[in-house]
Amino acid sequence: MAYLTLQGINKIYPNGFHAVHDFNLEIEQGEFIVFVGPSGCGKSTTLRMIAGLENISNGEFLIDGKRANEMGPREREVAMVFQSYALYPHMSVYDNMAFGLSLQGVDDDVIEERVMATAKILGLTDYLDRKPRALSGGQRQRVAVGRAIIRKVGIFLMDEPLSNLDAKQRVTMRSEITDIHRKVGATTIYVTHDQTEAMTMADRIVVMKDGYIQQVGTPYELYFKPVNMFVAGFIGEPPMNFVSGVVTNDTMQVGGATLALDKVLSAETVAKYQGKKLVLGFRPEAIELGAEEDSYVLHAEVELTELLGDNTNVYVDMEGVKSILKVDPHDTPKMDTRIAFSIPYKNVYFFDGETEAVIEK
Fold first, then answer.
1. Is the omega angle on the peptide bond into residue 226 within 30 degrees of 0, that is, cis?
2. Beta bridge partners of residue 275, listed in sequence order
3. In angstroms, what is the C-alpha Rg of the chain?
4. How many angstroms separate the CA atoms of 87 and 147, rounded?
5. What is the pTM of this model?
6. DSSP state of 261
7. Could you give the C-alpha distances from 335 to 127, 131, 215, 310, in angstroms and in order?
8. 311, 329 in Cβ contact below 8 A?
9. Residue spans of beta strands (DSSP E) within the chain
10. What backbone torsions phi and psi does residue 317 show, to the nearest 5 degrees?
11. CA 190 to chain centre
């Protein structure tokens, strides 16, 4: 295991493109960290700088307190799993997993012991004689993971390893990778654009946008305590609803309803935003159908419903303001009807209309 420190890391390409800005992060030994964000946000570039595959333009990268900027990939003792499995097609599963150890000059007896132990962990014991073309996508991904963990290095780096799998395989591999991490205990950095992977696998998540860190926290912290609208909208499925309005006489108009802001915000905060734009945020599942106490009560027209089994997504229109509600499937309202729904005060978020930062309650 290893602990990593990234201090003021920047990546600037020769053409002047600034891909990563002032990246600062402490990663504890054995921690499972997930970098998440939309395509082009800098997460894979940051991972490649940690791996030694990209030069660091500015800043300092430390492994166990030792500067690693100038170290090559091998010196850093990292193992990387790529989006493409990068298996040798002419080699068996056994030989693919053993190849790295063979290059290091490890004895055949030791190699066999490690391959068999790793194959047992990954459920590959019965496939060691097969070539990659005879395996399913999930099995090939397990071989790629096995080739990494067999080296017993302190740092695992994974760059969107599940993106080529179908939905069912991704669910299975998520749990398998999490289980492997518990057994092996290596410090792991995992890159994905899929917030579900991030939420289900990570000890902590790093949310990135346009090369900047937006927030670092546990899945709970990012879901319930987002620092800005980007994080609030990125984490959660369906995403958080946002409705903007101007503060007038301590109230805000939302879809024909007048909301008393002092029910959620302090009098000092409300006074600060008089005449300014605020954004109301609420999660689709954080509502109740009907009019409830200690809540903002809104009315809307039902435009579309999606029955998903365990819940129904209800798409509504509040006088031109679109939102999504998540309700119990047994309470699914009919389309083209008018409904009332309540947002408990405790489930309401407010964001600054200019900076998009969350406003503390």
1. no
2. none
3. 25
4. 9
5. 0.89
6. G
7. 52, 53, 38, 19
8. yes
9. 4-12, 18-27, 32-36, 58-63, 66-67, 78-81, 155-159, 187-192, 204-209, 212-217, 241-246, 251-254, 257-260, 277-282, 288-289, 295-307, 312-318, 321-327, 338-344, 349-352
10. -125, 120
11. 9
**Which pair of tokens denotes residue 354?**
């200019």
Residue 49 CA to residue 78 CA, distance in Å, equals 12
Write out the chain's pLDDT in tens, 361 residues: 689 999 999 999 999 999 999 999 999 999 999 999 999 999 999 999 999 999 999 999 999 999 999 999 888 988 888 777 678 899 999 999 998 888 888 899 999 999 998 888 888 999 999 999 999 888 888 888 888 888 778 899 999 888 877 788 788 888 888 888 888 888 999 999 999 999 999 999 999 999 999 999 999 999 999 999 999 999 999 999 999 999 999 999 998 899 999 999 999 999 999 999 999 999 999 999 999 999 999 999 999 999 999 999 999 999 999 999 999 999 999 999 999 999 999 999 999 999 999 999 8
